[in-house]
Amino acid sequence: MSENRVHQENSVKKAKLKITEARHPVSFSGAGLSAESGIATFRDKNEAALWSEYNPAQLASQDGFKSDPKLVIDWYNWRRQAVAEARPNSAHRALGSQSGWRHITQNVDWLLEDSGALPESVFHLHGTLFEDHCNATCGYSEMIDINNPAALRDCPQCGDYMRPSVVWFGESLPEAVFGAAIEETKKADLFLVVGTSAKVTPAAGLIDLARQEGADIIVVNTEESSNLKDDDVELIGKAGDLLPDLFRE
Question: Are the CB atoms for 91 and 247 separated by under 8 Å?
């Protein structure tokens, strides 16, 4: 048996023990969690040749929206249709079936909720594709049918453009959601990081906060992380393979 395999098996045993002993477990997920459901990561050009010529910042920023609002809405509607066709994978189902867990996610889909996670236990740091709001400050918002998303349109309340309720480059995270995520992180005794490079701030700072507050850190990713501490447990591989095993008694 190779040294890497022995190390991985030992890490799995450690992770299982920590999960079993946890009283306030929290998951923190990124695009890698949903990639196995066919949802392309934000910069994945291989999955969308139609959009490969565009810079993501051009399609997810106020400057891009002001420059060509129709292009931005068309791209988000393409993303919405992709999400509408996606189904939870085994990693989603493993997390969603756990009672008592809180889930902080950077993903804008609802696949955790579709897997059984209670909506009030999921904190979407980067917003959601299932809602639009006015790009101005009038406060109007409405839910969206992602199977049949609306084209570029005016806000019925003030006349400005409607836009997806997601966080664009240069925008702050939703204050209420981020505040709630910080509180959950402070209470956590286990912080399970899944499918994220943990480089996008301020969300990535939650891992350091959890560690500072004494939580055990488990990282599940397809590539090794560069910012782990000695006590952290790292598992390399697909979340869809690893998470069901971690929760299997």
Answer: no
Residue 59 burial by Cβ neighbours in a 10 Å radius (0-12, 13-18, 19+):
buried
CA distances from 72 to 108, 175, 188 (A): 16, 24, 38
Instruction: Indicate which residues carry an active-site annotation.
Output: 126
Distances (CA, A) of 120 to 167, 187, 237: 20, 16, 29
The Cα–Cα gap between 98 and 223 comes to: 25
pLDDT tens-place string over residues 75-87: 999 999 989 999 9
Which pair of tokens denotes residue 152? Answer: 């570029």
First to last CA, the chain: 24
Measured CA to CA, the distance from residue 65 to residue 135 in angstroms comes to: 10
Work out the mean pLDDT of the chain and round it to a whole number. 92
Residue 82's closest CA among 115, 109, 59?
109
* The residue type at 116: G
pLDDT at 170: 92
- CA separation (Å) from 152 to 62, 90, 134, 187, 201? 15, 35, 12, 42, 30
Q: What is the pLDDT of residue 5?
A: 81
- 91-106 burial code (b ≥16 CB/10 A, e <16): bbbbbbebeebbbbbb
Compute the residue count for the chain. 249
The strand pair at 102-105 and 141-143 is best described as: unpaired
